[in-house]
Write a structure and sequence with these properties.
Strand order of the largest sheet: 15-12-14-13-17-18-16
Structural class: alpha+beta
Low-confidence stretches: 1-26
Distance between the termini: 49 Å
CATH architecture of the largest domain: 3-Layer(aba) Sandwich
GO molecular function, one term: oxidoreductase activity
CATH class of the largest domain: Alpha Beta
Number of domains: 3
Mean pLDDT: 91
InterPro entries: BBE, FAD-bd_PCMH, FAD-bd_PCMH-like_sf, FAD-bd_PCMH_sub1, FAD-bd_PCMH_sub2, Oxid_FAD_bind_N
Number of helices: 18
Strand content: 15-25%
Family: Belongs to the oxygen-dependent FAD-linked oxidoreductase family.
Protein name: Berberine bridge enzyme-like 26
Keywords: FAD, Flavoprotein, Glycoprotein, Signal
Number of strands: 18
Helix content: 25-40%
Shape: globular
């Protein structure tokens, strides 16, 4: 007990200035620390899991996964405590003590939440549970599965599937960006280069370990199929804390083929993108071709133009790929010299823009840059006509910054075959492709100018994308769609944004929430509220 009080005194005194300035009678970080230490080991090693604002470790841990500086504003509420648990009992204790002391928990794995909701709040002080220590990956080559910790990155998962397990014909359909955290990606859906063959990442989850709102440790059998359904595409942070997922690995051939072909306005970009819209969702399910559109050149010098980069992964060899393209998309003009054969592992490095084909690059968790960005998303059900594309190009050419980009990922194939109610991710049959609208800028520039431009571009695109509702992808979170009111959530109000992410699955998600977390302990600005007829 003496050791426990010594640790507590140090932590509390270090944080006293912050606590005095931010807490109310309803929240008590001091009491949480006491409760947590009493509920776990009172050793120095346990105390090192707790990071308080005035200690050096606090800033180091907090900044380690910040991807969007825009979210760190003077008005943002920083974590009262950052907890870096090392085992499930620490997470269970955090939930029980947090509820007892009126402190909610936000969970962070890779830190890629586009609006920073995993790191900061617009409301009361909270505990940031950083799952950096839950990063193990255990591959079972015999049954083709893997248990992956929620704090691992997608790059770490890819690395351990191929290098750690020495399996050159196993892969997993997930993100191109290797620093994305497993928990956020899988619990929000997970789209990538192999989704046309194998569906989303969440479609391939077969089990999970979760701490619920009562602090109970659950697996698929004990949590029941309703909660298991909800955490696969519904955003797990609304329902509990996922510690690990069990996933089915998928077959990849020993040789895959990649290419990137770039075209500009003078090379019939409008015609090619128009044709791509009709062809890409209907191609062989082994073939994925996405398009990245952006403005390049100098506006003042008069050489600004639109560039479209056609990037592809084909699960097979060069000659088979060229044969398919010759029949289905000859207009693109892909030649043998444009195509590179490689292993699937090396294709993940190719798309991650690794400087060389060194698998250890996938283990790098560092942010790409300390910059700000804003993103939005859309789903397209009907091809945008040529005149519409030309209007979009004109809008992009007048953009406030060269870093604006449209990333268009084709759906179809397996994505058409899976029912939209199979998991909460509903964007299936009837959708041709998804668009991510992305705009980045240096941190020292006026953010409002860029945010206003992105909003105007999004409004401009309304005639060309899905309607009633205008659908959006949860993993490209957009707070402009709506937010929960501070300190409370309303099911009726939340449908404004919830139905955009989940369509008709939103009501079922809210019903699951009412069942597993009726007191709404797990909540944030876009968390799913308990279902209510009011």
């Amino acid at each position: 007990m003496v050791a426990n009080l010594t640790i507590l005194s140090f932590l509390f005194l270090s944080a006293s200035t912050f606590i005095d300035a931010t807490t109310t009678n309803a929240t008590n970080p001091h009491a949480f620390i006491q409760c947590f230490l009493n509920s776990t080991s009172s050793s120095n090693s346990t105390s090192k899991l707790l990071h308080i604002p005035s200690t050096t470790s606090y800033a180091d841990v907090f900044n380690s996964s910040i991807r969007n500086i825009r979210s760190i504003t003077p008005n943002a509420t920083m974590p009262a405590i950052i907890l870096t648990p090392t085992n499930a009992s620490h997470v269970q204790a955090a939930v029980k003590c947090g509820k007892a002391q009126g402190l909610r928990i936000r969970v962070r794995s890779g830190g890629h939440d586009y609006e920073g909701l995993s790191s900061v709040s617009s409301g009361d002080p909270f505990i940031l549970l950083d799952l950096i220590n839950f990063a193990s990956v255990a591959v079972d080559a015999t049954d083709g599965t893997a248990w992956v910790g929620a704090g691992a990155t997608i790059g770490e998962l890819y690395y351990h599937i191929n290098v750690g397990a020495k399996n050159q014909t196993a892969g997993f359909p997930a993100s191109i960006c290797h620093t994305v955290g497993v928990s956020g990606l899988l619990s929000g859906g997970g789209i990538g280069t192999m989704m046309r063959k194998y569906g989303t990442s969440a479609d391939n989850i077969v089990d999970a370990v979760v701490v619920d709102a009562s602090g109970t440790l659950l697996d698929r059998k004990s949590m029941g199929e309703d909660l298991f359904w909800a955490i696969r595409g519904g955003g797990a942070s609304s329902f509990g804390i996922v510690l690990s997922f069990k996933i089915n690995l998928v077959y990849v051939p020993p040789t895959v083929t990649v290419f990137q072909v770039q075209k500009t306005l003078s090379e019939d970009v409008t015609k090619l993108v128009g044709r791509w819209q009709k062809v890409a969702p209907r191609l062989d399910d082994n073939l994925f071709i996405r398009v990245l559109v952006n403005a390049i050149g100098n506006k003042e010098k008069g050489n600004r133009t639109i560039q479209a980069s056609f990037q592809s992964l084909f699960l097979g060899g060069r000659q088979e790929l060229l044969s398919i393209l010759d029949k289905s998309f000859p207009e693109l003009g892909v030649e043998a010299k444009d195509c590179t054969e490689m292993s699937w592992m090396n294709s993940t490095l190719y798309f991650a823009k690794a400087p060389k084909l060194d698998p250890t690059f996938l283990l790098n968790r560092n942010p790409y840059s300390n910059s700000s960005f804003k993103a939005k998303s859309d789903f397209v059900k009907k091809p945008i006509p040529a005149e519409g594309l030309e209007k979009i190009w004109k809008f992009l050419l007048e953009a406030v910054d060269d870093s604006v980009q449209m990333v268009m990922d084709p759906l179809g194939a397996r994505m058409d075959e899976i029912e939209e109610t199979a998991i909460p991710f509903p964007h299936r049959k009837g959708n041709l492709y998804n668009i991510q609208h992305y705009l980045g800028w240096p941190t020292n520039e006026d953010s409002q100018k860029h945010l206003d431009w992105m909003k105007s571009f999004y409004n401009f695109l309304a005639p060309y994308v899905s309607k009633s509702p205008r659908a959006a992808y949860l993993n490209y979170r957009d707070i402009d769609l709506g937010r929960n009111e501070k300190g409370k959530t309303s099911y009726r109000k939340a449908t404004e944004w919830g139905q955009r992410y989940f369509l008709n699955n939103f009501k079922r998600l809210a019903q699951v929430k009412a069942k597993v977390d009726p007191d709404n302990y797990f909540q944030h600005e876009q968390s799913i509220p308990p279902y209510s007829i009011n």
